[in-house]
Automatic annotation (TrEMBL):
It comes from the Eukaryota. Pfam families: Methyltransf_7. This is Uncharacterized protein. GO terms for molecular function: metal ion binding; methyltransferase activity. Keywords: Magnesium, Metal-binding, Methyltransferase, Transferase. It comes from Phaseolus coccineus (Scarlet runner bean). GO terms for biological process: methylation.
């Protein structure tokens, strides 16, 4: 069974995804009285991802796999496949299952790249509640182009009857503040105090887009390689993983820490490394302020797709 995890990153969750897939397949084999398959996993992320750290954790992963499943369990092989998933990564008809979590809402590039100064998203680094329709359209068009290419590539790479499971940030009918807006508010505060330059803020855009269910259904239908088997919306608090009795500062620090791990390279490249500590101190305080007045939640779309043959 050949499985590819797209946008695997590096961290404790990287190999945890593989464990979950193995557990699900193992349970199905027991239920159906079948021999477990041999697994071939491909871990994919951009070329700069720290695959060596993942490789160093493999001996412990294999040891735990034997302890949990026993020697009768099928063999498991793990490889890395670096590169952008907005394009081909694997031979035709070679993969049985694609998995991708918290990755497909990341765009292939800044959606405003190459546009005129008048078309830029000035004063903000992402979509915010007051963004004009033209900004929404620019983000949406980039998302549609990227996801069409993503689906076309995966459709060519999947074997007949192959499946794909995606989890990505999304928008629902209930308006929710995005974490990108909290970043934008923090940057605006720093601009007003002269800590960052206006030109740098005007030209900086976080390359993510959270689609509505209808927008995602539309692009899947238009591309034509897959049919939707199942689709579910999951609401998750920003501070999921903290204790209920933790105060706002502890929970805000938790949010700031994982946000920093994701976006600091982007922010540092544009605004400079010197202001990063100050930014995340202010970002944490901004989160505390927002917690007092509203519930901070993500909307995730979990979608299961089957290749049309």
């Amino acid at each position: 069974m050949k499985v590819a995890d797209l946008g695997c990153s590096v961290g404790p969750n990287t190999l945890g995804v593989l464990s979950n897939i193995i557990d699900i397949v193992d349970a199905a084999c027991v239920r159906l009285n079948r021999e477990p398959p041999t697994f071939q996993f491909y871990l994919n992320d951009l070329f700069g991802n720290d695959f060596n750290t993942i490789f160093k954790s493999l001996p412990d992963f294999y040891t735990k796999l034997v302890q949990d499943k026993g020697h009768k369990f099928g063999s498991c092989f793990i490889n890395a496949t670096p590169g952008s998933f907005y394009g081909r990564l694997f031979p035709t008809n070679s993969i049985d299952l694609f998995h991708s979590a918290s990755s497909v809402h990341w765009l292939s590039q800044d959606p405003f790249l190459g546009l005129s100064e008048e078309e830029l998203n000035k004063g903000n680094c992402h979509l915010v509640s007051r963004s004009p329709p033209s900004v929404y359209t620019t983000y949406l068009k980039q998302f549609q182009r990227d996801v069409e290419l993503f689906l076309k590539s995966r459709g060519e790479e999947l074997a007949a009857g192959g499946a794909m499971v995606l989890v990505l940030l999304a928008k629902t009918e209930t308006p929710r503040r995005s974490i990108w807006e909290a970043i934008s508010l923090t940057l605006t505060d720093m601009l007003l105090e002269g800590l960052i330059e206006e030109e740098k803020l005007d030209s900086f855009n976080i390359p993510t887009y959270e689609p509505t269910i209808e927008e995602l259904r539309h692009v899947i239908g238009e591309e034509g390689s897959f049919f939707i088997q199942e689709l579910e919306t999951v609401i998750v608090p920003w501070d999921e993983g903290t204790n209920e009795d933790d105060d706002e500062n502890v929970r805000a620090q938790f949010i700031a820490t994982y946000t920093r791990a994701v976006v600091e390279p982007l922010l540092s490249a544009n605004f400079g490394a010197k202001v990063m500590n100050e930014f995340f101190i202010r970002f944490q305080k901004k989160i505390v302020q927002l917690m007092v007045v509203e519930k901070l939640e993500y909307a995730n779309l979990a979608i299961s797709l089957i290749k049309i043959t």
